[in-house]
Amino acid sequence: MTFSSLKIHLALALLLAAAPALAASAPAAELAAAEQAVAAADRAQPRGEAGQLLIRARGQLDAARAAAGKRKHRDALLLAESAAANADLARARARLDAARADIDSKSARNDDLRRRLLVNRRPG
Fold first, then answer.
1. For each of the chain's 124 residues, which pLDDT tens digit applies?
2. CATH class of 26-121
3. Cβ-contact 63, 47 below 8 angstroms
């Protein structure tokens, strides 16, 4: 074996030895982000369709944790990102539903005030 081929074999051996370290690492940051997104969505108290999105996000987060435990890091990463996206959507829809309910309540209050003003204006 020549000196240059020894270098090549040594480089290959080092590369093979380092391959597990270079492999995809556990998506800890993505799992933490998904957990935070699910917790934030839960605080928004979603109902209806938004509640179903939150349930889906929780399921995806659980699946991501399980995949990470099985060292299926790519699957865990995709599931964690999907869980975070669904949780964010659930939170946004819950906030939208709350805003619409607030608008409906204020609109009903305005209608009631309008009726009272009209009743009080009539000459009697």
1. 666 666 676 666 766 665 555 455 779 999 999 999 999 999 999 999 999 999 999 999 999 999 999 999 999 999 999 999 999 999 999 999 999 999 999 999 999 999 999 888 776 5
2. mainly alpha
3. no
> CA-to-CA distance for 100 and 108, rounded, in angstroms?
12
Q: How far apart are CA 120 and CA 123, in angstroms?
A: 8
CA atoms within 13 A on the CB side of 97: 15
User: What are the C-alpha distances in Å from 58 to residues 8, 34, 109?
Assistant: 49, 9, 38
| Angstrom distance (rounded) from CA 55 to CA 64 | 14
Segments making up each domain of the chain, as ranges: 26-121
Helices (H), 1-124: 3-22, 28-43, 49-69, 73-121
